[in-house]
UniProtKB/TrEMBL annotation:
One of its GO terms (molecular function) is 4 iron, 4 sulfur cluster binding. InterPro entries: 4Fe4S_Fe-S-bd, 4Fe4S_Fe_S_CS, NapF, PSI_iron-sulfur_center. PANTHER family: PHOTOSYSTEM I IRON-SULFUR CENTER, PHOTOSYSTEM I IRON-SULFUR CENTER-RELATED. Residues 59-87, 89-118, 157-186 form the 4Fe-4S ferredoxin-type domain. It comes from Rahnella woolbedingensis. Keywords: 4Fe-4S, Iron, Iron-sulfur, Metal-binding, Repeat. This is Ferredoxin-type protein NapF. CDD domains: NapF_like. The keyword 4Fe-4S applies.
Length: 190
């Protein structure tokens, strides 16, 4: 296994731990009812998006109203995956994944990004027909890399994505060195 793969795995583990710690802390402070409400509203939050947004963007119509395009979130993102496009932040996973660090949300003063929103970029992987893993079981890079076990191959070597488990981090796309995974918006109503 390569050093870069090890580094990637370590980073993923650290991110998971950070998220878990944050989640635990939040859980201790929040009543259980609020957690249920947040989970139920996460689907609605992703509706109507024309572009991928920072992972804790509020529902798109409100987001458009509240976000003033200041660009603080894009400056705060340690991996540089946010850009201001048409006056609002969009997220592009080309060279780095979103590890749900929350720096963008913390930097936002307008309320357009909100720590109570379930972390989800709204992106979901589409595994293309030419994926090598579909031919035999020699490649399972995306399945192995996914920190949320959202990708699995069946006994006929055909992959599937559990959209409810996936949070659109994009790690699967980055580990596929054949470029056979694209990310598309979960709800794209254009
Ligand atoms: S959660 Fe972190 S990595 Fe993801 S977009 Fe926001 S600042 Fe960037
Ligand atoms: S399937 Fe989803 S959660 Fe898993 S690596 Fe891909 S984008 Fe991330």
């Amino acid at each position: 296994m390569s050093d870069s793969r090890d580094a990637c795995d370590n980073r993923s583990l650290m991110s998971s731990r950070e998220v878990s710690r944050r989640g635990l802390f939040r859980g201790l402070l929040s009543p259980a009812k609020k957690v249920v409400e947040q989970t139920a509203s996460s689907e609605e939050t992703l509706l109507h998006r024309q572009y991928p947004r920072p992972p804790q963007a509020i529902a798109e119509p409100l987001f458009i109203q509240k976000c003033d395009g200041c660009g603080r979130c894009a400056e705060a993102c340690p991996v540089g995956i946010l850009n201001i496009h048409e006056g609002r932040p969009t997220l592009a996973i080309e060279y780095a994944e979103c590890d749900a660090c929350g720096a963008c949300t913390s930097s936002c003063e307008s309320g357009a990004l909100d720590a109570s929103v379930v972390m989800d970029t709204g992106l979901r992987p589409v595994i293309l027909p030419q994926c090598l893993g579909r031919m035999d079981d020699l490649c399972r890079m995306c399945e192995i890399a996914c920190p949320r076990t959202a990708i699995f191959f069946n006994q006929q070597n055909q992959p599937a994505v559990d959209s409810a488990k996936c949070n659109g981090c994009g790690k699967c796309k980055l580990v596929c060195y054949h470029g056979d995974i694209i990310l598309s918006l979960k709800h794209h109503d254009s």
